[in-house]
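WARN retry 2 of 3 for item q-0093 after timeout on previous attempt; input resubmitted unchanged.
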Amino acid sequence: MLFPGFPGVATAVGLFAVIWLIVYLRTKGQPVVFDPGGEHGEFGKRLLPMYLDITKFVLGLAAGSIVLLVGSLNFNHANVGSLKSFASPLFLVAMSIIYGTFFMILLTLNYEHHLHRPNDPGSYSRFKYTRNQSLGFGSLACFCISYLWLIAVATK
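OK item q-0093 returned
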C-alpha cells in the first residue's frame, strides 16, 4: 500500500473506468443526441437544470461529510490515530466531489458548444457523451460506496 487512502483512490479510478467501459459498449452504434425529441434547446430547458441540481445536492452532502467526519475525529484526541482507517472512504468521497465538479463543468461546456453549432453533428461526440455519463454516474457511485465503506469502518 502506497499511503493510507490508496485503496479509496484505486476504487474511485477503477469505478470510473468500469462505468466508462459499460457506457461506451452500451452506446456502440447508437446516435448521440443532446436534445430530446430533436427540439433544439430542449435539453437546457428541462434536463440540464435537473442534472446540475442533483449533482449539487450530492456534492453538498459529500463536502459536508468530509468536514463533519474530520472535524469530529479531531475533537476527540484519542481517535486521531483512527483517522487513518477513514482515509480510503474519505478519498472516495473526495473523488466523488472531483468527478461531480468535472461533470457539471464539462456537461455545461458541451451543451454551450452544441447550442452555438446546432447543425454540426459532431458537436456532441460519443466520446463526450460517454465521458459525461461516466463522470456523473462515477460521482454518484463513489459517493454511495464511500458511505457504505464509512459505515463498515465506523462499526468495526
